[in-house]
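Board notes (copied after class):
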Amino acid sequence: MILAVKKRYAHVGTGGRASFFYEAIVGSYQDSAELVAFCDSNQTRMNYANNRLAEKFPHYRPIPTYKAADFDEMIRTEKPDVVIVTTIDRTHHHYIIRAMELGCDVITEKPMTVDEDKCQQIIDTVERTGQKVRVTFNYRYSPHATKVRELIRDGVIGDVLHVNFEWLLDTRHGADYFRRWHRDKRNSGGLLVHKSTHHFDLVNFWLNSEPKTVFAMGDLLFYGKENAEKRGVNSFYQRAYGNPAAKEDPFALDLEKSPSLKGLYLDAEHEDGYQRDQSVFGEGISIEDTMNVLVRYKNNAMLNYSLHAYAPWEGHMVSFNGTKGRIQMRIGEKSYVNSGGKQTDEGATRLRQILVQPMWEDAYEVQLENKAGGHGGADPILLEDLFGTPPEDPFHRSASHLDGAMSILTGIAGNVSMRTGQAVQIENLLKFPSRA
């Protein structure tokens, strides 16, 4: 009997998002995949990952850990086939590029990177090395998102001419981006890149098209000290831990209440000084919390998109206007703090409705599958696509580096537009050698 050779995975970046991947490899996919090394700038977080896996899976034996400066040594010593990248966004390109140069394929968390220069470097390295990069857009795999793609693909409302897309982050989930490293735009590209990359990818996926022209406006209007002062707030603090002023603040995050937040961040901050529980009404926030974007696509469809991060309700509403009718989708999501709860809570849906209104006919509601797992049932399907043997996918939900580029380029162009006040042509931001 010939045993199948397991694919070897090294994981760089062991923060809050990492366990989604490494627990799947060690658990459900242990017969086809092998986790061979962790890499991070913080030893405490790597130790936490090893201990977490040992506690959850009796068969697990701790794997070697490497500091960020020893990334090349890890690749040479452990010989992974694939590197999984879940570091902070501004460093994604460094590990993606170096992994490919050393002969590895890459799975990267979204966004692929944060600006057009780093994106160009990744595109060029794929062309030069022939290695593969996959971007983990789990929202594509949710039953409701896939159903919308199916309806549009099958011409139920004809050619889509216009999309209206409103995404609301509430005062628990939305606020969380203003407590941590995301609040510095140099790290995350702002929410138009870090968060909206999911949404812009969905529109690309639904329309089977790519962005052409982008115009955006955005500002920091709710979070930050100046905005709080305008509303009459006069009690401020730098971080929640150990601060009496945070006790009465509903926006404060208590790291000691969550074993995972404590283990990953509070216990680890002595190494690098990173504070996970900064005040959302503090100084130094450089990202926007209110954004509006207009996009023209190559197929001439238009998008009107908005995102704000201080809503009393979490979810999104999308409408598609076509030559034969209209689709309306309304999705309510359970509020979530990264690493502060169960993985299945992330993106969990509490309301799902798709309504089709044909021209000259009665409207009808579309029936949706109920699937277990985070992001409305998407996460298990994505993991099977990454680490298992998935069946043929008629919707082509697996996302490449080009899909990753096209999703972030809408947000990157939006950032340029906000700075300049001008519409931005996507073709002026990036060159695609393989499309020449």
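Comment from the instructor: The chain has a mean pLDDT of 95. Residues 6 and 31 are 7 Å apart (CA to CA).
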